[in-house]
Amino acid sequence: SHRLLRTHHRVVEDEEDSSEERTLSQSQVKSILDEMGLSWTKYLKNPNYLLRHKRYEEYRQLANKIIDGQKPHGPPKITYEHHHYG
Q1: Where on the tree of life does the source sit, at the highest rank (predicted)?
Q2: Could you say which of 12, 26, 38, 75 has the lowest number of CB atoms within 10 Å?
């Protein structure tokens, strides 16, 4: 009879380029707000200012365009090694 040994899966990730979703920096948010003519000061005092603004959808589309441009291109940076013992 064969004894089943625990298999270990090792994940190797490129340290320089995390696979986590990128977000906008404060300077990018400020740039979008300035471009749209919205108040950076009001946003800093109350982030819900933007969520409740009638132009939020426009902001969201601009933000997503920037975020999509920051995503790494090419194959995933994570590799999986499977070891089977038996």
Answers
A1: Eukaryota
A2: 75
